[in-house]
Each structure stands twice: as C-alpha cells, then as structure tokens.
Design a protein that fits this description.
The chain is an alpha/beta fold. About 40% of the residues lie in helices and about 25% in strands.
C-alpha cells in the first residue's frame, strides 16, 4: 500500500518515545494500530528500521537516518500548523527558535522567562541543534530566529554578534598545569586532551593553532557536549578544551579553568533570515536577546 504522512508521524513518535506503548499513549491510538503502521512503513521502504531490546525499541542505522530526516520535516510541519492556527485566530503569537546546545542550558531559558512573563498569548517552539544546523534552518525559513555561532558571510542569514566566548583548558587542581596562570600551547604537546570533535568550528580554530605551533596533543576522547568534556576532565581522562561559558557552568571547586597563552575566542550571534519581515513576536524576542545581560559572570564578554 502507498505510504502516507501518518506512517512517518507514527515512526517519529515511536523513535522519540523508545516504546510502542508510550507512543500509542501520546498519540491516543491503540498499540496494535501503531504496530500496524510500523510494519507497513518497513514493508514500504524495504528496510528494517528498528529492533527490540527487552521492552524498548532501538533504531537500526537506516532507521536513525530516516528519523533524523523525519524530525527535521516535523519541525517544518509543526510551524505550518501553528501559523494556520494563528491565522484562524486561535493563537495570538507563535515563535520558532533554534538554539545551539551551548546556550540551551541557561541562556535560552532565562531569555524565554523574561520574554514570556509579559506575553502569555505567545507560544514558543524550541529546537536544539548544532550551530550549523540552526543556520541552515533559519536560511530555509523553518525557524524565526536562531542563537548560534556568528555566520557573517552567509548570503541568506543575517548574523548580529552578541558576545564573545574564550576557549579554556579545564583540569583538576592537582594537575601539573593547574598551577599556571595560562596554559602554554607547547605544554599540550603529547598531553591527553578531551575535545569537542573535529567537526566543531571552534575546535577547527584550535586545531589550526596546534598545527601552526607544531603541537600534537593526544586527542584521547572526543565529546559532543561541553558538560561531558568537563566531567571527563574532572575524572582525570585529559585536559578538557571548552568555552568559557561551559567552564563557568560545569567546573566545580576542585577544578581550574585556564586560558591559553595564545587566546582563541569566537562570537555568539542572533541569526535571522535576510530580507524576511519578522513577526511581531520574533521582532520583540530579537530585542530581548540583544538587550540581555551578556556579562563576564556567565563566561561571556560583551563585544566592543
């Protein structure tokens, strides 16, 4: 039988919930109906998309790729539905936001708390994605606003720098380098480090600095989250190389966060689509973002 959007909606719900039972509850349908849709989807694409482990379902590699695509499409669909409801008059304001993980722990919640306190009529959808993905979604018009790394040369995205973050080395206080005021790049030659992965644009800047100075640290672990890198450093598995905001949030009293002798920093920016007229809610939230207290106490340095 031909596949319908409902097949992919069911698949997305099961993959997100990790359970047919939980997905059925969230969708308010029967478990047999959910299982039927999943079988039809697998038959339709001719691939096994999931496998069972006890009471939980896990995705196959092919299922994971399909889920990532469906998840992106669901964001666009949800925005379309919200806009339709707004036009009908059932909503007075809707805002779709993209935010890189770095800013989703504390910065974005504080911004939303400030913004929504006086706007009970506004509803918000938040998508946490790597900065490059946020830029892409803003460029496609699937997100009203984005918070991510500065993208000054993008032809479809306007980038307004907000604050700077410095790259720091985090380590336990008992580490030999912890007694210094700054970490000499040369001291990292051969040292165990925990990085954020070669695909991270900030890590790319650090790697270029290593190459220029002839430094070859031992990249023992690559993490996708700064909080994980800090915790691994705390356990003595290597010097964590993270941003100053993550260092302020996650390093405890037994840790030190030190700058490099050759400073490496990058800029956080407000991302909007070039040439697009923002909704009133988007324009007001953009103003909230730009007036927020980007302060040193949170690891940020306001741009001059």
């Amino acid at each position: 039988m031909p596949l319908k959007p409902r097949h992919f909606e069911i698949f997305h719900a099961v993959a997100a919930a990790g359970s047919v039972t939980e997905a059925a509850r969230r969708l308010a349908v029967s478990q047999p109906a959910v299982s039927k849709y999943l079988r039809e989807l697998e038959d339709g694409v001719g691939l096994k998309l999931r496998y069972r482990d006890g009471n939980l379902w896990h995705l196959t590699p092919e299922g994971q790729l399909l889920y990532e695509q469906v998840a992106r499409d669901m964001v666009g669909f949800a925005r379309t539905l919200r806009v339709a409801l707004e036009l009908k008059g059932t909503r007075k304001g809707y805002l779709s936001l993209g935010c890189m993980p770095l800013l989703s722990v504390r910065v974005l919640p504080e911004l939303l708390a400030t913004f929504l306190a006086e706007r009970p009529h506004v509803s918000v959808s938040v998508v946490n994605q790597p900065s490059a993905a946020v830029v892409d979604q803003v460029a496609l018009g699937r997100l009203d606003l984005g918070l991510g790394l500065d993208a000054p040369n993008h032809h479809k995205v306007a980038s307004t720098p907000l604050a700077a973050l410095e790259v720091l080395c985090v380590m336990p206080r008992g580490h030999p380098l912890a007694r210094r005021a700054r970490v000499d790049i040369a001291a990292l030659d051969g040292a165990d480090v925990v990085t954020l992965g070669t695909a991270d644009p900030v890590q790319g800047e650090i790697d270029r600095l290593f190459v220029a100075r002839g430094v070859r640290p031992r990249r023992r672990i690559e993490a996708t989250m700064a909080q994980t890198a800090v915790e691994l450093a705390r356990l003595g598995l290597g010097i964590g190389i993270v941003d100053s905001h993550a260092a302020r949030l996650f390093t405890g009293p037994g840790m030190r966060a030190l700058p490099l002798d050759t400073p490496v920093s990058y800029r956080i920016a407000l991302l909007t689509r070039r040439g697009a007229m923002p909704s009133q809610a988007a324009a007001e939230f953009a103003a909230t973002i730009q007036s927020w207290r980007w302060r040193d106490s949170a690891g940020f340095a306001r741009l001059a």
